[in-house]
Amino acid sequence: MHPNLTAGIDVALLVFYAFVLFFIALVFYLRREDRREGYPLEDEVTGRVDTFGGALHTAAAKTFILPFGHGTVKAPAWSREPVDIAARRTDRFAGAPYEPTGNPLVDGIGPAAWVNRAKRPDLDMEGHPRIVPLTTADGFGIAREDSDLSGWPVVGADGAVAGHVSDLWIDKADRLVRYIQLSAEGGPLLAPIMMAKVDRRRRRVVIDALNAAQFAGVPRLESPSQITLYEEERVQAYFGGGYLYASADRQEPIL
Which of 2, 82, 5, 71 is nearest to 47 (CA)? Predict the structure, then answer.
């Protein structure tokens, strides 16, 4: 037997070739896997859905089991849900912006954009709704040195009163306030606490995303005790859109 087991074999070169082949395979694998969300692509102008692309382009659909019995989800999903937005392109070229054709606060354009999330509440690690009214959350309360804002007026960007605080909605998992509940025209509605400024000196809450009259159009909840992921998208998009669409002067260029 020859004492040198690798006689005539360049081990370093073989290792290098093996690494190159592994790296190429890894690139193909990662590129196939990263096409699960957001695919298939669509043509910007015509809306035509891109083709599957073959085995080297896109991985086969994978089924994900959702927790707490909420079914399964497949990705990539080669079927398209209809998009209900009231908008049109300003021109026919790739990258041309859309403009709303109705109420810009709910048309799903720009800062008022939303996605069709699940029509069920966000859940904590135990499967319970994580965002609930403070008045129904046993064991939770506002710190004694702070106010629960009950009865405080909510003022819009125009300085008018849009309603009064009737409750706070808390995130039981993150231990913080997520929404302010207002008693307003048309029934209670929620406003994101992150868009509110609490004026302790004047004992009021200022939300400058909307004018007072526009609060009446905030999407309402189907249940008085829980908010779904779908409803959260609509509520936050409505207020987010107000920073551009609440008044005509906000839509003009700064310079």
Answer: 82
